[in-house]
Amino acid sequence: MTPTPTTVTITGAGGQIGYALLFRIAAGGMLGPDRPVRLRLLEIPQGVRAAEGAALELQDCAFPLLRDVEVTEHPEVAFDGCNVALLVGARPRGPGMERADLLAANAGIFGPQGAAIAAHAAADVRVVVVGNPANTNALIARAAAPDVPDERFTALTRLDHNRAVGQLAATFDTSAASIRDVTIWGNHSATQFPDVSHATLDGTSLTAALAERLGGHDEAAAWLDDEFVPRVARRGAEIIEVRGSSSVASAANAAIDHVRDGVLGRDAADGWTSAAVVSHGEYGVPEGLVSSFPVTIDGSGYRVVEGLSLDARARARVDASVAELVAERDAVIGLGLLTP
Fold it and tell me: What is the pLDDT of residues 146-166, one digit of tens each?
């Protein structure tokens, strides 16, 4: 029996990240080689033609798993029967724009999208917010869909997680598969904390291996604080400086990783990964914030790994990033865009 197609909605589908996502999803790279998909491409009016062009290319690829593609500027159409929603399109920060202006502009996007998801999506819908500020945009979308379970809304910090693993693999001149249990805590911003205190390299303590490689624990701590953490946190800015535009392929790849693990599960032997999920008070993060945690996945959604120890250094960094999330939430409340 042929499986029922999964309806995948991509917002901002005419943009670069959307374009990088579409062909991998249609080829089975996100949901597996045996699950057919329907694609719904949501765009603002001025982006519709680009999305229509991508739809023509998808047809020309003759992907066996792709059942149909629909381009629309109407959220109620895009999210009708949606099983997986990738909210990519967001308002970028323009010249002279204050953060409050940015949050207000994005609330005008993600609030209506959350309401459309609540009204029209399938009962099993899973939502991942990619567009920045991703954590708070996810908070806004979730608030507009109060009847959709908390665990269905997530924000993307898998890109930060992959960046951290990639940096460590390069440092140790090894495969990324050798490294497990890295954690991204907090916000997808420069305040995030890439934490390696529980990570392993080929099954042994990564911090011990780092101390051996760099000549001592003090040297390892200095490298983590002065090089590793800032570089992971500011990798997006580095790519803009070098490439001349923001991360595209790596962001799309991380979104595919995030959804694939969330839907299909993740082998326990691969350790945990990182995702921004709705907090229920874990690690002192205020309830309701969408914050990045270490998570495991069994195919029914993300589960926060609890009981990990945080030393004073880690606690301070996590608290700083969470404080930024609180400030963003309070700014949105202050604008009357979110109920306290």
Answer: 999 999 999 999 999 999 999
